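Notebook, p. 212. Picked up where the previous page left off. The plan for this session was modest: take the two constructs that came back from the sequencing core last week, fold each one, and keep the raw output in the notebook itself so nobody has to go hunting through shared drives later. Recording the first one now, exactly as returned: residue sequence, then the structure token string.
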Amino acid sequence: MLPNGNNMKSIRSSLRAKAATRRVGVRNDAKKHSKKMESRHRVWEQALRESQEQYRMLLDGIENYAIFMMDPQGRIVSWNAGAERIKGYEADEIIGRNFSCFFSPENIARGRPEDVAAAVRFLCGPGARYITGQAIHSNGGAYLGA
């Protein structure tokens, strides 16, 4: 028995109970934090989906300019309505193809697609730049493209 009237067993028991209560409290706090983070994650995912949809709608609404993206290998990965109207290819027939299909056989033989690919890498740097040259429409006709 201790001088204050408590025995060692009851003190140990009391300390264990307090520790268990703290562990439960920590677990509950962790669960609350996890739920809060999951909720924030869902909000951010929804905002990203909405932003992507707005961007797609914006690009699809531009019909006076051909806007498309290529991967580092030169394959077309996106295609807007303007590109469809100007270049004559529908998205499902051009996406996945190499951009060299926009060049005449003569320009392909001269290495023009490789020159343009090098210029595009240059264009990715700071500042506004563009390239002009003869391009081939899906119907085989040539036009001056930028």
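Okay, moving on. Second construct, recorded in the same format:
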Amino acid sequence: MDIRSTDRRIREKAQARALSALLVGFVLACQAPLSAQTAVHPVGGPRGASFEVEVVEANLKGAFDAVFCCDDLKATVRVEEVEDSPARVFLNVEVDPQAKLGVHVLQLLSDEGLSKRLTLQVNAEPHIAEQDGPHLTPSQAQLIEYPAVVNGRLSEDGEVDFYAIEVAAGRKAIRRLKSSNTTIGCRT
């Protein structure tokens, strides 16, 4: 699906929801301003899974729906608003077992309009969470069964996390890093 058809699909869904909202009030269907500090965690999940995604953004107060580029993903929205803090939006995402692998575009619909485009990645590999305990040194590295997608989070500047991956002799491990809001590097 190309970006124009994705944009059209998102606009059509937003317009249909806005039209139904006109019966009970006025909804402004425009792009809501988002700051540069948008963070999405985790950045995706596997086919056939249900998982919670957190979106942290200062300008998402009043978000009430998630509009995806296709019917492969669906989500319900829950918002936690704390005065003088960015809104915390939680999406309970369901991925169809036959969902297309790769990046899926979504936008949040709020009282302010549509958010900027956000993405979720659908993978074939199992997803695992970053361990709660420390893994700040090579001796504390979190053991990962390959292949897998690790949903980790760097919570402070300068944080370093270590992972140990065991790969059978003669096989190569592929490392790809994706972040929702920063450029990150990888050393092996």
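Notes on construct two before I forget. Residues 18-36, 182-188 have pLDDT under 50 and may be disordered.
Flagging for discussion at group meeting.
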